[in-house]
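Priority: medium. Attachment 1 of 2:
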């Protein structure tokens, strides 16, 4: 056996374990298991056409070589992206720390108090800087956040506006071009009419429900919007702002101007450019919109003992609850990046942020003065960090590029220069030299920055911000390092134990895949640099697209969507564009099985489709007769079927080809949700089963870490006839000949983390990918058989096999008064994160072990669940003061002088021997969900100010 091959490091079970596992599963070998798992006619007949696998050493050398093809210029392009300095203490202790990047979305709040606190800090930071009352815990990017703002305000129109079908949305022509493109892609399906114009000539007509302003404008001008907002509010026109986060340290917060919503990106708070992402967007609004706001909100509640605890609040707003009634399909956000941005504010504090903002602003004034002395006209009367110079761009550009400098060239006769926190005096002098050379004049040397000057058009901030203790306590590296560690210790991540969340694929995020994202050659590239400066990236991204084409069997891929939900939305818009190109725009019915993930119906509605739900049979499969009836009934309007394969029940449905053919026969396209692609790679593919388009979750199947709830990448892969519709970008050309508008702000979405999936495929190769899929299926079936006799598995294939996950039924335990939630919380005492609870069937758990977990860990997990069933069996009927109802048990409980429970402390905390070697202690007892929603508090203010004890 080659011990230097990556596959041996990625896959958990070793050769010596396989016979034990096969015996438990009841097969002789892997081939027999796969034969019994897959339906006839869908297995691939040959291995994937991919290069031989690289070793980890070879891969890192390969990435180093590719990195040299990226030219890291000093870039002053702006347009929402700025060079930023990631404090080393944050880079080392969060970005490069598996205790932070391998955690999942904090659905089990008791073992997620650390990142919940970090996200509460983020929300507080956003509320303070924007002057708003409520913020969520991040969105995908500024463009999609702007679209969410528009959609929310559209949904929140007055009854009279809805009755009159008011649908116009004013957009300032100062908007960033990529944001405008994303707005267009969202407006069209919802029948919102965008009207782009100059805000100074807007007539405040009653035909408008909302308006969108950029603050500062796209080329840096700072406008005083107070009069505009006042008039808009008087005319029942709700105003949304896109605001530069650093500028809000110095500018009047939009909330003080009367804004309803403020969005933007926190990229310049210590997050690498990464050729477009990932970056955490923000969304802040008034508390009146608390049940309309998209994304996740972290709130304060209490635990069983009345102690302060944190949780995700108001989850009934979200797509997994509201489904086709949801106003947003947002699921994955950008938690890891939001944590970093929040820590940037914690580290610098209000004084540090003020110093940085003043330095950037004073550098900009100093540069403007120097260029004016050379005879250049500076066109922005008021500005924060960007000046607009009247100059011949065709003359300036070649001189600048010889100096390894990028500017933004506007209309041929203007040059915009956006400065940032990394800009030094040497950088300023180099810029002045470039313009002096272009003018044929001697340069003007800058020795010092202008101080205490302000060019902000009467919009100078006077209100304080970041007054909470957390932003004024951790300004030394030692202090911040310990604070980060304190939070990390509260969270259970993959570096402690298996996280078997079904439909989430919590596999290994290998160190060799992760290392390159910290390299400057990849991190410090602006998404709008000329293509020739990003040849390393271009090679990686194009190769990854080709790899995904091979894996899916499709002809084209777009990496632009930043999450699976955005991939769904993009895929449905591509289908919509396809029908429109065939003069069949009336096709708007989307068939969706009742078992589908909540993002499916939410995405369909946002794409302008009408959802028709199809039944599932008693075995959990799509009811083909019901599907046939509805497909034929709607054959003139049928747009698409959304299907997950294997199903959300963890089964390869044998009739899948019949299902896809039925849709095609009735004029529809087949959208395959790729959430469960970890059961397909190398063994079958979406093209083989008859799909036309699918999205993939690179943060599931292809090893990008979940980061506590993001980043994610949700590329779409499409058949040949759909390639022409792949999404575009208004700044850098991407997509097909008849491309839909942008789905995300950056041309290739979150390019930086695409390196991870590129490495995953490169190091596994065709055989390794196939082996990983096979092992994921073996691990799932091993757990299924080990739990046999303790739990019933609800659904299996025709030969009794699970795919890569299975659903165990916890409903019979209700007879003893035990709910599935009690089992989930008791698992914490055993050192495990619960599997997916009550999805897709209430009262159940969905378990997905992935290929990365070894036999010993699988056995520990099974032993824990079996032990819990024995605890349930021992309960007396009606007994509520028991080890399950009181779970999880904290160290504080165990060490209290009084112990008023009918079981021992040892039974509570150490119910099984293996726990003594590796005990994980939750820091709060079971959180009170309802209390947190009734007393909503989403910032760091003292709890006494908001709720009564």
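Attachment 2 of 2:
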């Amino acid at each position: 056996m080659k011990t230097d091959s990556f596959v041996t490091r990625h896959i958990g079970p070793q050769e010596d374990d396989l016979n034990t596992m096969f015996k438990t599963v009841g097969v002789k070998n892997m081939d027999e298991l796969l034969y019994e798992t897959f339906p006839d006619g869908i297995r691939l007949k040959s291995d994937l056409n991919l290069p031989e696998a690289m070793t980890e050493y070879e891969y890192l050398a390969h990435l180093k070589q590719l990195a040299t093809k990226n030219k890291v210029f000093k870039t002053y392009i702006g347009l929402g992206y700025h060079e930023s300095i990631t404090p080393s203490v944050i880079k080392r202790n969060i970005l490069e720390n598996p205790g932070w990047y391998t955690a999942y979305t904090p659905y089990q709040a008791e073992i997620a108090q650390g990142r919940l606190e970090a996200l509460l800090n983020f929300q507080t930071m956003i509320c303070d800087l924007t002057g708003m009352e409520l913020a969520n815990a991040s969105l995908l990017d500024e463009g999609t956040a702007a679209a969410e703002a528009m959609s929310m305000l559209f949904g929140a129109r007055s009854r009279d506006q809805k009755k009159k079908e008011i649908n116009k949305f004013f957009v300032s022509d100062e908007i960033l071009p990529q944001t405008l493109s994303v707005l267009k892609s969202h407006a069209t399906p919802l029948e919102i009419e965008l009207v782009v114009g100059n805000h100074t000539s807007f007539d405040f007509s009653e035909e408008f429900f909302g308006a969108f302003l950029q603050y500062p404008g796209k080329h840096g001008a700072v406008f005083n919007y107070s009069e505009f907002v006042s008039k808009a509010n008087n005319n029942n026109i709700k105003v949304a702002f896109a605001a530069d986060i650093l500028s809000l340290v110095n500018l009047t917060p939009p909330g003080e101007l009367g804004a309803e919503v403020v969005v933007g990106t926190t990229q310049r708070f210590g997050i690498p450019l990464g050729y477009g992402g990932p970056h955490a967007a923000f969304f802040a609004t008034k508390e009146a919109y608390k049940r309309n706001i998209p994304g996740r909100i972290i709130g304060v509640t209490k635990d069983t003992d009345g102690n302060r605890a944190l949780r995700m609040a108001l989850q009934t707003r979200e797509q997994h609850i509201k489904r086709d009634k949801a106003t947003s399909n947002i699921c994955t956000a950008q938690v890891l990046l939001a944590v970093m941005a929040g820590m940037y504010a914690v580290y610098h504090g209000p004084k540090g942020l003020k110093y940085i903002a003043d330095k950037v602003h004073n550098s900009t004034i100093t540069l403007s003065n120097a260029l004016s002395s050379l005879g250049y006209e500076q066109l922005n009367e008021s500005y924060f960090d960007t000046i607009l110079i009247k100059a011949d761009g065709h003359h300036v550009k070649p001189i600048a590029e010889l100096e390894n400098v990028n500017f933004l060239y506007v209309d041929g006769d203007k040059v915009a220069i956006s400065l940032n926190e990394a800009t030094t005096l040497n950088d300023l002098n180099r810029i002045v030299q470039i313009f002096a050379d272009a003018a044929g004049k001697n340069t003007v040397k800058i020795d010092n920055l202008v101080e205490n000057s302000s060019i902000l058009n009467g919009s100078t901030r006077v209100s304080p911000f970041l007054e909470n203790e957390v932003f004024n306590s951790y300004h030394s590296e030692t202090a911040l390092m310990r604070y980060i560690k304190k939070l990390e210790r509260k969270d259970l991540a993959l570096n402690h134990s298996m996280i078997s969340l079904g439909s989430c694929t919590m596999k290994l995020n290998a160190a060799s895949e992760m290392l390159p994202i910290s390299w400057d050659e990849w991190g410090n590239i602006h998404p709008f640099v000329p293509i020739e400066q990003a040849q390393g990236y271009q090679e990686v991204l194009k190769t990854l697209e080709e790899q995904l084409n091979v894996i899916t069997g499709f002809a084209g891929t777009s990496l632009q969507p930043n999450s699976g939900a955005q991939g769904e939305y993009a895929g449905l818009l591509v289908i919509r564009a396809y029908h429109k190109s065939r003069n069949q725009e009336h096709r708007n019915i989307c068939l969706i099985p009742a078992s589908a993930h909540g993002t499916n119906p939410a995405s369909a509605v946002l794409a302008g489709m009408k959802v028709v739900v199809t039944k599932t049979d008693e075995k959990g499969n799509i009811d083909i007769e019901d599907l046939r009836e509805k497909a034929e009934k709607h054959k003139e309007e049928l747009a698409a079927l959304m299907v997950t394969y294997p199903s959300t029940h963890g089964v390869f449905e044998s009739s899948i080809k019949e299902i896809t053919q039925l849709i095609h026969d009735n004029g529809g396209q087949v959208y395959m949700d790729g959430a469960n692609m970890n059961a397909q790679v190398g063994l079958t593919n979406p093209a083989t089963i008859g799909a036309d388009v699918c999205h993939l979750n690179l943060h599931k199947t292809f090893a990008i870490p979940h980061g506590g709830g993001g980043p994610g990448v949700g590329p779409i892969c499409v058949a040949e006839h759909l390639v022409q519709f792949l999404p575009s970008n208004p700044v850098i050309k991407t997509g097909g000949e008849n491309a839909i508008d942008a789905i995300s702000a950056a041309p290739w979405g979150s390019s930086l983390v695409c390196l991870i999936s590129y490495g995953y495929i490169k190091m596994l190769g065709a055989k390794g990918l196939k082996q990983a899929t096979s092992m994921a299926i073996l691990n799932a079936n091993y757990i299924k058989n080990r739990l046999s006799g303790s739990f019933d598995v609800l659904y299996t294939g025709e030969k009794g096999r699970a795919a890569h996950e299975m659903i165990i039924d916890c409903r019979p335990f209700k007879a003893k008064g035990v709910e599935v939630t009690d089992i989930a919380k008791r698992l914490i005492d055993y050192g495990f994160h619960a599997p997916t609870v009550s999805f897709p069937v209430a009262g159940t758990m969905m378990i997905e072990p992935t290929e990365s977990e070894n036999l010993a860990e699988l056995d520990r997990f099974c032993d824990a669940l079996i032990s819990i069933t024995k605890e349930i069996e021992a309960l007396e009927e009606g007994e509520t003061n028991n080890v399950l109802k009181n779970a999880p048990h904290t160290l504080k409980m165990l060490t209290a002088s009084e112990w008023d429970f009918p079981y021992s402390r040892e039974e509570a905390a150490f119910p099984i021997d293996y726990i003594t070697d590796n005990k994980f202690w939750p820091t709060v007892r079971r959180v009170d969900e309802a209390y947190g929603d009734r007393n909503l508090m989403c910032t760091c203010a003292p709890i006494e100010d908001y709720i009564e004890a």
